[in-house]
Amino acid sequence: MRKCVGCQEMKSKKEMIRVIRTSEGEFLLDATGRKNGRGAYLCPNGSCLAKAVKNKGLERSFKQAIPKEVYEALEKEMEVLESE
């Protein structure tokens, strides 16, 4: 069970999107859940992403500022998941 950085609800890992920071400081979306790096979890819907942006959930998880490109990539991923 993992906690969403947006809505703060506990859900299984398979239901969530994992965002990781690699040792090089790069942020990636981890669809497999197996990549190395510090991870934070987010529900696959736009409302949780909006809450995470508003309450700086990803910033707190990684203890640093998050590049705008990471949020844009998450938005695109959410659109794909919601259209399925």
From TrEMBL:
Span of domain YlxR: 2-76
Q: Show the CDD domains listed in the entry.
A: YlxR (cd00279)
Supply the name of the protein. Answer: RNase P modulator RnpM
